[in-house]
Amino acid sequence: MKDPAMSRTPTPRSETRLVELAPGALDADRAAADTLAALQAGTSAERDLLNQLLGQAQMADAIAKFSRTVRLTKLAFVRENKLYQQLAGKQMPNGSALRGTWEEFCELLGYSKDKVDLDLQNLQSFGEEALESMSRMGIGYRDMKQYRRLPEDAKTLLIETAKTGDKAAFLDLAEELVERHAKQKADLEAKLDDATKTLQAKDAVLAQVSTDLNAAKEKLARPWTPNPELGTRSATEDAALEELAKAADASAQSARRLGVVVADICANQTNQALRTKALQALTYVVVTLREVVIEHGLEVEVSDDALGTRPAWMNAAWQQPSDDTTA
């Protein structure tokens, strides 16, 4: 009787094939790994973190699995505590010595300093969870830059929406907030421009008032030369002229102040009722003067040439000596 084991048909062996790699396919990875491995040193907790980052950068597949926000959190710690300075003096395989700078450290990890700084800025603005969610949504640097400029309350609302992972809701909210912020910014700029123009107008009015006052002071400071044809006034006449000049000056200055107040209200107040009352106040003063003229039967002529002109006699009304004061 034949042994069943002897009657089995031999199982053909599978042929093992070797996969050939192109020459130099791993040279770049091997060189990067050798370079980073040469920099790993130290036993302290800070050095362990530094070496951990360098080690994680050695393998491309490890970097791909390395959470972006976790990496950024560790990089933020390294930058804040300046752990990269511990690399100063380390020798590179090519013989050059490291200076221990932040830019140098970023390049060793395979990133540019500007990109890492921008990533850390986004991390600080949005937080780990929201940034991770926005990265999965495919939100780019340009959009994140717009989101960073939003007011704090709007940015907080956007961050909370990002954490939900709802891309459609996030994009709709982001578009609304950006448009609203742009409109608010434009409104503020318009108000600032209006305020600047108003301030310039006020400065011009005050400058003119100051010029008028200075001119009046100069006229008052001029020495008075009596007119021999008019003769000498009595003390009673001097007192009457002085009182008249003071009353006229006080009324004119009050009228100018009222005009400035009314003009300011009409230019800057949006309340129509307030603007109407301001004009009514000015009208009241003008009408009162007209009533005085009519009531006392006075003849007053007003011409463009007389506008803003102070009568010459008023300049000397307070200075001309009377016949009673001469000794």
List keywords for this structure.
about 325 residues, mainly alpha, 13 helices, about 65% helix, about 0% strand, coiled coil
| Topology order in helix (H) and strand (E) letters | HHHHHHHHHHHHH
Q: Tell me the number of strands.
A: 0
Q: Structural class of the helix and strand makeup?
A: mainly alpha
Helix content class: 55-70%
Biggest beta sheet attributes: none
Radius of gyration: 44 Å
Strand content: under 5%
Mean pLDDT across residues: 75
Keywords: Coiled coil
Describe it for me?
Keywords: Coiled coil. The chain is an all-alpha fold. Among the domains are: 96 residues, no CATH class; 94 residues, no CATH class. It has 13 helices and no strands. 10% of the residues are buried. The N terminus and C terminus are likely disordered.
Give me a quick take on this structure.
The chain has about 325 residues and is an all-alpha fold. Helices cover about 65% and strands about 0% of the residues.
